[in-house]
């Protein structure tokens, strides 16, 4: 199913960010992911679907197993997302440093 | 096959109104005062962010219930001028991206430069098991860029 989920939406959820980070270590099945995450297998599947719709994750069959892995093009999307993240983080850092720090 | 996308490092800088020592201290030892923990943390609620101040040290968050969430490993620790982190949330990830932060005197203040690099390593990793790639990705990315 094609939806309009963007990487930004997909990674806006902390659990989905965890799923994405775990997949950066290599392909994994739903069961493998569910073992290390504090959510159920159906919930992991749901998160994977959103990540897949956003183009961040793809899946393939290996025998009877469904393996999920990072979509390389999705990495570029993540890079864009990180770009936006640092804008936000550094703006906040500036606000804190300007008020809390001493001048030279 | 599509040509590989060249993924440059993300580079950002900001000039702040304090000296280099304070900028470094606020960045690494007073991180809770500025890090957007509400949207960028592993746990729902975070009480502390810790930079262990040495090469090989760990950067992690502590949840309000005391659980640790790994963020990064310190690769270079050169206070108050520079630090480099291997950004590998949760330690399971063998392919970390790298974040370098530099603190440079700039007039009365400090110029803080962030470089987040190593995207190509992630791409290689993802491409290992993948054949030719083609999808409606451009469209997805375009709609994303519009929103930013």
What this model shows, in words?
- The complex is a heterodimer of chains A (104) and B (148).
- Chain A has a single domain (7-99), classed as Arc Repressor Mutant, subunit A (Orthogonal Bundle).
- Chain A has a two-stranded antiparallel ribbon.
- Chain A is 61% helix and 12% strand.
- The radius of gyration of chain A is 17 Å and the shape is elongated.
- Chain A is mainly alpha-helical.
- Chain A is built from five helices and two strands; from the N terminus they run H-H-H-H-E-E-H.
- Chain A has helices at residues 7-10, 14-23, 30-36, 41-53, 72-100, and strands at residues 57-62, 65-70.
- With 148 residues, chain B is an alpha+beta fold.
- Chain B is globular.
- The two termini of chain B are 29 Å apart.
- Chains A and B meet through helix 2 and helix 5 of A and strand 1, helix 1, strand 7, helix 2 and helix 3 of B.
């Amino acid at each position: 199913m094609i939806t309009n989920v963007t990487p930004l939406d997909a990674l806006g959820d902390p659990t989905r960010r965890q799923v994405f980070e775990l997949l950066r270590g290599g392909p994994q099945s739903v069961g493998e992911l569910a073992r290390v995450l504090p959510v159920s297998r159906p919930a992991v599947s749901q998160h994977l679907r959103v990540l897949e719709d956003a183009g961040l994750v793809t899946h393939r069959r290996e025998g009877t197993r469904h393996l999920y892995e990072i979509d390389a093009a999705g990495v570029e999307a993540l890079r864009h997302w990180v770009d936006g993240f640092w804008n936000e983080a550094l703006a906040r850092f500036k606000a804190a440093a300007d008020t809390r720090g001493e001048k030279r | 096959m599509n040509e590989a996308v060249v993924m440059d490092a993300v580079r950002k800088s900001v000039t702040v109104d304090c000296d280099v020592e304070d900028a470094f201290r606020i960045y690494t030892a007073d991180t809770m005062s500025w890090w957007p923990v509400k949207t960028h943390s592993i746990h729902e609620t975070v009480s502390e962010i810790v930079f262990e101040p040495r090469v090989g040290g760990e950067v992690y968050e502590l949840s309000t219930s005391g659980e640790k969430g790994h963020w990064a490993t310190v690769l270079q620790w050169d206070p108050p001028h520079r630090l480099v982190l291997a950004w590998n949330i949760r330690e399971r990830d063998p392919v970390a991206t790298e974040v370098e932060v530099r603190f440079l005197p700039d007039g009365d203040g400090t110029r803080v430069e962030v470089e987040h690099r190593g995207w190509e390593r992630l791409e290689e990793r993802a491409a290992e098991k993948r054949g030719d790639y083609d999808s409606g990705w451009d469209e997805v990315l375009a709609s994303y860029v519009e929103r930013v």
